[in-house]
Amino acid sequence: MTCGEPGPPGALPPDEVLIERMTWEQVRDAIARGATRVLLVAGAMEQHGPHMAIATDTLLGYAIATRLARRLGRTLVAPAITVGVSAGQLSHAGTLSLSPETFGRVLVDYCESLAVHGFTEIMLIASHGGNIRPIGENLPELRRRLPGVRILASETDPSVVAGKLERVCRKHGLNPALIGFHAGQGETSMMLATHPDLVDMCKAVEGFTGDVSIRWRAATPPPMSTMSPTGILGDARGSTVEIGELLLEERVAELEALVRAGTPET
Ligand SMILES: [Zn+2]
Asked: Which residues, other chains included, contact 248 with Cβ-Cβ below 8 Å and sequence gap of 6+?
């Protein structure tokens, strides 16, 4: 391969937005050219039913953040916090969980690292419900430590999630009980749209479709096994790429509006 020619196989794409796929010089130069906003996904490594991969929340977070960064412009995507606060999912094999205290320390360390290099705006994106409360609890500390950085958060209160799901479902004629909050039609459809190789629709089943509000009313949610033995909240059957694209677009548009408005939703 001849060095210096644009576009040979394996070349680093000049429009990359994922920091982990860039060189340090590319990151430095992008910041110098004005990419001073960075998106930080707080994902999870937790069970997602018998049909979908453990990394679902983290992968969907990357997919949404990448689309959002390209739409906003002058924005990069930080390496995600890949393990979140998932104590309620430890009843199922493969789940890893950080305590809220550990998560908070990791969050602060990530943000302080990003601030060193010249990012002046950090958008925290909760890609897993269990991370919302600790993100909210750590915002004052982050803002105290990093007074020169504008820090936004996608959510700071887990109770807002149900209302958002209801609104999106009503708008598009979807059934919120099936879309669900965890590994149901919603997440399964978004994974079909972004990572179909990590979904086995032959194993997609109906999960718990009743009232799940205890999961965000309680500081520590009950073990998932007591609510849904399969680990699904919602119904994974009937998931489609089309539903997935629609939900991805809704999330990207919601976050774009939030960044442009510059105020955290509570
Ligand atoms: Zn999930």
From this structure: 63, 64, 67, 190, 193, 194
- The Å distance, Cα 130 to ligand 1 centre, comes to 10
Give per-residue pLDDT as tens, 102-150. 999 999 999 999 999 999 999 999 999 999 999 999 999 999 999 999 9
* 90 vs 6, residue with greater confidence: 90
**By residue range, what is the domain housing residue 103?**
19-258
Q: Which residue intervals of 9-159 are DSSP H helices?
A: 24-32, 56-72, 100-116, 132-145
Q: Answer yes or no: is 266 within a domain.
A: no
What spacing in Å lies between the alpha carbon of 128 and ligand 1's midpoint?
6
pTM above threshold 0.90: yes
Say how many Å lie between the CA of residue 45 and the centre of ligand 1. Answer: 9
> Given a cut of 50, is residue 217 above it in pLDDT?
yes
